[in-house]
Specification:
With 308 residues, the protein is an alpha/beta fold. The protein has 2 domains: 218 residues, Spore Coat Polysaccharide Biosynthesis Protein SpsA, Chain A (Alpha-Beta Complex), CATH 3.90.550; 69 residues. The chain has 10 helices and 7 strands. A 7-stranded mixed β-sheet has the order 3-2-1-4-6-5-7, sandwiched between helices. Helix 1 links the parallel strand 1 and strand 2. It is elongated.
Amino acid sequence: MNNQPLFISIVVPVYNSTTTLERLYEQVDMLCQTQHWQFEIIFVDDYSKQDTKAILRQLAIAHPATVRIISFAKNFGQNSATLCGIAHAQGDFVITIDDDLDYPVASIYQMYERLIEVKADMVYGYIDSKSIARRCGKSVIGFFLSKLDGQYSSIGSSFRIIHNDLAGKIAQHAQDHVFVNQVASWYSHDIDYIKVKRGEIDQKSNSGYSFFRLLWIGMKLIIFYSSIPLKLMMWGSFLISFLSFFIGAYYLYLKLLIGAPLGYTSTIVSILFGTGITLLGVGVMAAYINRIYDMRIKMPTYSIKRDL
């Protein structure tokens, strides 16, 4: 029996936070002492202002055994910061959490218990939003992802606990232009969700996620982090090309059997058949580009689950 204490890695993307970072560390430290866990916190500084950098340096100096700081040379965004942190994590389990304490640190233990109970590879912690607009927007984006980019694709949440086996596979894509939750769904369908209470978010600490910013993130997710636009173009081109061929054949039928004004049928048929051939070519091209896209982001052909 392995008597070694559990070792967890906490990945925290940081951008211009000042009032919550010390409290975040204190809560993680308290949780791990209570559960007799060993831990490391990896703060990934996404090119924050000097005030934030100063606080991170103070934390690293005060807690050199448990705090690691990774600083970006420019702002790359939360998704890239999360991927970077996962790639540098060394724990048996990797937890990702926002820097604004919107998610409660104490819920990490509940998520860990859930992961062990259902033998999942990853568990999301989510909060029910009070905003109807946010819930509707998330549902719409989730619907498109599941229907067009795979049954198990999901927006998920930035609060996750990941088994190190899956975290290692995600880390292989740290330099690829991919979305963390998207990559997780490539490797495993053993992903679960647990509802958590809202944390003690500081009103002075602006998380920066307004409705319009969330809308922009959702659009970026669909356009830049998935093959949905290519698939829409491919199937749309095929559909319109077949309709063009069908309508062209119908006008040709009218000309041969019923008769039509001189020049009218030939013009219509030429336009429709020409459009059909063009769009058919666009569809085939989109299909090949989609294959190239899959190869570029290294989408796996299979994934072997760890021994249980």
